[in-house]
Design brief:
Layout: H1 4-8, H2 12-38, H3 46-73, H4 81-119, E1 142-151, E2 160-170, E3 176-181, H5 195-199, H6 215-221, H7 223-226, H8 232-244, E4 250-255, H9 256-266, E5 269-273, E6 277-279, E7 287-289, E8 292-296, H10 298-306, H11 313-330, H12 333-338, H13 340-348, E9 351-353, H14 360-371, E10 375-379, H15 392-406, E11 413-419, E12 426-429, E13 437-442, E14 454-455, E15 461-462, E16 471-472, H16 473-477
Helix pairs in contact: 3-4, 4-13, 6-8, 9-10, 9-13, 10-11
Length: about 475
Amino acid sequence: MPGAAHLRAGHRRTGIALLVTFGAALVALVVMGLRLMGNAGAVVRPSTLTAIMVGAAVGALAWFALVVLSFVALRPQRLSQTGQVVAGIVAGVLCVSVMAPFAVTAGYIRTASQTLDAVMAPVEGTTPSPIRAEDPWDGRKRVNFLLVGGDAAGNRVGVRTDSMTVASVNIATGNTVLFSLPRNLQYVRFPASSPLHKVFPNGFNDEGQGLLNSVWYYADNNPQVMGGKNKGAQALKDAIGYTLGLHIDYYAMVDMFGFAAMIDALGGLDIRVERDIKWGGHFGTAGTIKAGYRRLSGEEVLWYGRSRVDSDDFSRMSRQRCVIGALAQQATPSKVLANFTRIATAARHMFRTDIPRDLLEHLVPLGMKVRSAKITSLQFVPPLIHTGNPDWDKIRELTKKAIRESMADQAPIAATASPMGTAGTASASASGSPGASPSSTLSSTPSPSRTPLLADAGGKKTPTPNDKAAKSLAELCGF
């Protein structure tokens, strides 16, 4: 206890002053802690991180000085020579011990700040929109994130986006719908505002196939078409947003091999493996992930989500959703703190995003809501959607329905609609962006099952079913 040694030595004024100072510091820390608990996002502000680092340095020096001064005040020279040596060693150990937590804290905060600055640095040629503290979401009721798994392996040229999921988050409740789009979805359209709309007016058909996972690659390799470099993310956001009838606000791309390193940093991931998964090459010669409820390493998690041996893209997409859900549940604060430096190191080589640094403090509390909210999932794969000849109207209708049902535990909320550029077609804008024209109010009650056939804009029927509601990840993955 600061001041106790001085009181014992008879220095009452100094002892009382130290006790009062220590008490005031404790009260200040409690007040600061309570304020941060009410606004968890404030912790990641650059100013807060700097203040914590400076505070940790001052605290370490103060404790060091306190131990030394307390030792001197007790007059160790009164002891025998052996006693002085022992007391000096104890005092030295105390000095190191009380400084260590402050040094670790300062190191963690410095690492965190550098990682956030590296991950959220604006892409060359882009300028992030300013964030208003009073309304960080710019009046939106939902915010839509495009989550991309990128594979830039050594045997490939450029980045191929092999995993694409849109997380549509209700800002008020955190309820989230995950929309998974297959890599082989063909001939996606672009809105009129996109430069690729003029190049591919009848749908993306680069390389004769027009696979969705080639959009980013094409845009990055044709800056003359896009009007600048590093436009792959924007092109993919345009294509997927137009496909779903949503406005994609931000993207985050994870390099798959960096993702494996992060899972290892967390100590692995517990996943229910429904059946044996072979991986490696075309025939699964590298190994097998055995069925059962297992803790998987980073490499195993990566291949659990990527392998198509004796399987297909659509099964792989389902497993990827389970990986996302398991990570959301198991990356607890205690695990993150215990492995913080390794996670931060992996994150620097793993993430790319256009989320502004200033938005992060508002994103943290939203992420905390999502962790405890309802997460449902819908993937646009056969037999629901034919990837070679997609029914775009049906995809948008299913998207609206999934979002409507995710809000079923709320009071009715008015949706907005905006024309999507196709004749006779309008779809709901889940972002609630200003300027969208109001449409009818959507009921919070789940809609009844639709007929097995849905008429497209020309009155033609589609053979794929329409009554596939979005399902919870607990139901899909056995959490």
